[in-house]
Amino acid sequence: MSKIIYLIEQLLEAIGENLNREGLKDTPRRVSEMYEEIFRGYNNSEKPKLTVFENIENYDQMIFDKTYFYSFCEHHIIPFFGNIYLAYIPSKKIIGLSKLSRVVDFYAAKLQTQERLTHEIANELWYVLNPQGVAVMIKARHLCREMRGVKKQNGEMITSCLKGVFLEKQPAREEFLSMVKC
Fold it and tell me: Does the pTM of the predicted model rise above 0.85?
């Protein structure tokens, strides 16, 4: 943590700030603590333990979840955020609903690209559940595009990763896409 504090002090001085100014006195420590929290995805001990259950009812229909996320662009180290739409069609295992959000939060808690985040989440669910299919779609706003460069506000980047029946079977894909539109 002391290395981050030192670097934040250097950054503040480099942009012309006075480290002794009242509002900045504790800022390097607060930023360091914030970075430890929001970049916890680099710590594998933080990876969620995914509770899975036997699919004793032989449920074979789509399970769909929509959740909010934020992450940080690896190119500019500023946030991107939005909604993630997750779906799977179980085989022999189902997962606790809160665990879907925990998977999202873990992979989002590091410097990311939206494309990689989409694939990491889909691959984790595919590996852990061995389902008939997995679908992940992310719709996100990127502050690097809104605050600098082209300065285009309220645009969305959309990425998806489809596996199994969502990739191979048009009806499954269409059902997923209709749920996303709801």
Answer: yes
